[in-house]
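Handout, tutorial session.
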Amino acid sequence: MYKNKIKNTLRLSSISSPIQPAKTGFTLVEILIVISIFTIFAATGIATYQNAKKRAVLDDAYASVSQAFEQASNRAATGIGTEKHGVHVEKERIVTFEGDTYIEGNGNETPLPTSISTDQIDLTVLFDRINALPEISADTTITINDEDGSAKTITIAKDGRIISQ
């Protein structure tokens, strides 16, 4: 009799609560939401990377121009060579040289990246030997621009200081 009760209980329990398969997977809406979130993150990351890259190009060009003036001033101050040292700045390049005047083709040329330009078309700054004072009548400012309008300036003061801003 006990066995019959167990059989009846098993039969009744299987009839009253059928076993349903568990749900697995994601719905289409859930997948679209996840894809949208990843797209937003990717777009933000790409924009941030591009802005950082442009800033780095401007910073590099700025450092190159500033370094050219520092190098010419230091070479003049230490008396390297027998003549003055100078920097010639054009819209898309800078040239460090030794001599009383800039002569096309002489000196060390540093081209600026194509996305960078200066506000100078034809500027030459000479530094006297030993005292390293620039031969300028007033403070001279060079602005370095990128294609997005960001800019940095370098000022060569009459007293020989090179002020980077």
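The second record follows below. Compare its token runs with those of the first.
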Amino acid sequence: MSVQYLVDGYNAIYRISDFLKNSLEESRKSLISFIERTRPQGSSKNLVTVVFDGKPGMISGMRSNSVKIIFTERTNADEKIKRIVDQAKIKKNIVVVTDDKEIQFYVCQLGAKKMSIEQFFIKKEANGPVDSRRVSHVQEHEINQELKDVWLKE
């Protein structure tokens, strides 16, 4: 049975500094690219939907074959995530990825699961629990970037 992950897009961008770029468009692309590359959702059968705040008429050229991208209209991402969970037939197969306590509380009351932004980006072992000594994808990338800055100075 597949799991659907709903990611609070801007919450993820602002919680993980590696995704924060010069513009919101670059930040969104960085987040989506990271999910496509590292597949923190595990199995390719598990669906990932990233929800961003939007406004009527906002058009984004963002496309992904493996990540569904939603820009809200006439509402915000928080309300859209709540509505998606509320309208789902099988709520227990939904995991909402956010650090927003209000959203976490709401979706848990409906029967969905919650996951923090940091938890979503931690490597998972195929046959067991997460090893707390492991380095998360985000930490791995930050370490690599720091090494590049130190060793590859121009």
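Points raised in discussion: The longest helix spans residues 24-38.
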